[in-house]
Amino acid sequence: MSKFRAQLSRDQSTFYNKAEFARTIKWNGYDLVVQDETPPDLIQFGHGTNAEYIVFRCPASAFSSGLPVNDEVVVIDGSHWTVREIQKPHDDLIIKLDRLVS
After folding, report:
1. What distance, in Å, lies between the first and last C-alpha atoms of the chain?
2. Where does the source fall among the domains of life (predicted)?
3. What is the pLDDT of residues 62-76, one digit of tens each?
């Protein structure tokens, strides 16, 4: 099991490398390194008010004050988003958020 954990650690340092795959966002005023995993089919267009979605992957250890929860409103880079779904594969979090836009 320790070899598996060591491999995960190496994978995280690769996936969350800002020069390659990741970027830094402001999550409630704190820097958070994430991978943007928003699939193109989540982009919704229509008339009037629409929902905009984003999906981020980040290390679970990045949240020292507690993990986000469903329906929590957070500020990301100055915009308000609502946490809609959280998955926790291994030591990562996959967070799906949405907001209403017009």
Report:
1. 49
2. Bacteria
3. 998 889 999 999 999
